[in-house]
Amino acid sequence: AQTVTQSQPEMSVQEAETVTLSCTYDTSENNYYLFWYKQPPSRQMILVIRQEAYKQQNATENRFSVNFQKAAKSFSLKISDSQLGDTAMYFCASLSSNDYKLSFGAGTTVTVRA
Amino acid sequence: NAGVTQTPKFQVLKTGQSMTLQCAQDMNHNSMYWYRQDPGMGLRLIYYSASEGTTDKGEVPNGYNVSRLNKREFSLRLESAAPSQTSVYFCASSVGNQPQHFGDGTRLSIL
Residue B101 forms beta bridges with which residues? Predict the structure, then answer.
């Protein structure tokens, strides 16, 4: 079983600034996949970024990037140049390559201030 | 392209009533999932179906049943609803290790 921990329930950031969300996970597998999902007030679950554990290079997607530290089992998300539309709850998730079950963290609510 | 469609979007039940949440995907995905989302707890897996004809329990299966009707459809049934099952329910689908695609969710309140 995989567990995912997000230690920051809420974060606030000024528009155009940068915010970093923390995520740690625990797994006994060597090959797995990590994700960040965004859930705006509309309740939709939107994929932000995906990282394969066997790849050392950190994934980036426009203003979103991750810092993947495999040995430390850490997977943080950096949002650069924050925009009002980034206001949402962000979930870190880990996918097992054995059974393709997705385990979620409790989420971090990000509020971008104008 | 509709993706993952869940019905209904909202429902209010009385304790003891039964109901089935419907989910359908049009992406030809093999795997389908049902989650519940409660405040402060993220999404928790109720049941999943790795392929047509198979279903397995997730983290919180008690009080629920599922049916993988065909490759497209995966339903979740509450036989005797309890207030503890008040939650937002999400259906998702995927293929292999690719990201899961989620429906828009069903907000279920049990009085």
Answer: B93
B56-87 pLDDT, tens digit per residue, is 999 999 999 999 989 999 999 999 999 999 99
Cα B102 to Cα A39, A43, A44, B62, B80, distances in angstroms: 11, 10, 7, 22, 26
CA distance B104 to chain A (A): 5
Encoding tokens for residue A108? 């971090």
Cβ contact B23:B74 at 8 Å: yes
Q: How far apart are the C-alpha atoms of A15 and A114, rounded to whole Å?
A: 5
Report CB contact under 8 Å: B48, A44: no
In tens, the pLDDT along A88-110 reads: 999 999 998 888 889 999 999 99
- Extract the tokens encoding A53: 């554990």
In whole angstroms, what is the distance from residue A83 CA to residue A63 CA? 10
Q: Taking CB atoms and an 8 Å limit, are A104 and B92 in contact across chains?
A: no
In contact, A74 and A20? CB cutoff 8 Å: no
**Three-state SS at B57:** strand
The two counts, helices (H) then strands (E), for chain B are 0, 11
Beta carbons of A5 and A23 less than 8 angstroms apart:
yes
For residue A6, the chain B residues in CB contact (below 8 A) are 42
Contact B55, B65 (CB under 8 A): no
**Tokens encoding B89:** 């329910």
